[in-house]
Hints:
Belongs to the aldehyde dehydrogenase family. This protein is of the alpha/beta class and about 475 residues long.
Amino acid sequence: MKWIENLRDPSLLNRAFTPGSQSDEIVISNPLDGQQLCAITDDSAATIERVIAEAKQAQVAWAKQSAKQRGTLLRRWFDLILGAEDDLALIMTLEQGKPLAEARGEVKYGAAFVEWFSEEGKRAYGDVIPAPVNGRQLLTLKQPVGVAAAITPWNFPIAMITRKAAPALAAGCAFVCKPAVNTPLCAYAVAELAYRAGIPRELFALVCSHDAAMVGEQFCHHPDIRKLSFTGSSRVGKILMAQSASQLQRLSLELGGNAPFVVFADADIDAAVKGAMESKFRNAGQTCVCANRFYVARTVHDEFVSKFVAEVSKLKVGNGLDAGVEIGPLIDEAALIKVGAMVEQAVTVGAQIVCGGKRHGEIKSCFMPTVLVDVDHSNPILHEEIFGPVAPICVFDTVDELIAICNDTPYGLASYFYSRDVGTIWQVATALEYGMVGINEGIISTEVAPFGGVKQSGLGREGSHQGLDEYMEIKYLCMGSLH
């Protein structure tokens, strides 16, 4: 395939794609059928050390360029990403599994961060502070932190890179990224487009390794890495946070979630069903912000369930390259086993399967969209991130009860609720312990708003003007003897 041949360009970090399957290679396979797509080099610690050294050197010259100069190159990168939308979406569907239409949506979403930060970098304003005494001038300015590293997940293999790389580069940082071993081809593809836009290869570097622990330790302990951004599990995030403490490294952590989706009695039920479909089943439920547990007011429970199940039953499951497919495969066999076990456990303690509940009869890598009812809040499935197309539904009676059960989790990333009462909206929105709240909306992610969580869902924000600040230090200048 042409896209594979283009990616095999040995100039990519001076490391070629490899033809076979050796111990020092990473084999990339299609999660739908296990077919091998290609193999890439499994980078050693020595290679990563060299890449970091080159990034540090490149960052000095990059920081000296004006924000406008950096923004011009980022804008070229944005244009090239959009121009390659079809190729990038194809790569994503083949190595990650999400339906082609959804993959195209991610390409646009990922590109939007590059466009946003190409402009936002010009607005890294400082302050002039009124001095407390005559003869002084106080001011602040913002400067890049230096070399930034990132570790990105497989579920959004383009957007999770551009959401970190674009603000880092716009701020004047160098950027070294380890993409997930399941989906590195998307990373190499968007990086190649960045190089074609004129962004130096040493400045935006990729490393890939099966030994994630080794890479994490190297990123956290290396004195030239001044910032680390990680998207992944809370368990790994805590490990990275502990390791980075040795040099007080700046961190951005976007970790696990347990998003509630609430339908109040006064909600527009049809709108709530539409929002639930968008929130729950995007990427086969493999998103950190997707609805993980549903709470529906008792008086509208039956109506919501009936309409919701009718829509869920229409979802087409299969090969993401086939027309009309809306649910593709889960990322690997371990994910399928985990989701199946969670459903079985939920049923053993009282939940009822209304639809789905098992793997696809013909395509074993796909799990059928599933709805569970009669789910008590104590059911284990409500207290763990599902990461699959499973929607457990509970009932609730009062607002106070609802707020308590929604907040009964160590996680606090995204939450959603539907209501048309302004008093309820304000009360619930302010009481929910989550970094993001969708009100009468099922999809809330956008490059112009801050993305991030509270509690054990992480720290820091991505997107918006706050996303640029994550890669900049504030320097205070006190100028005296100005009589």
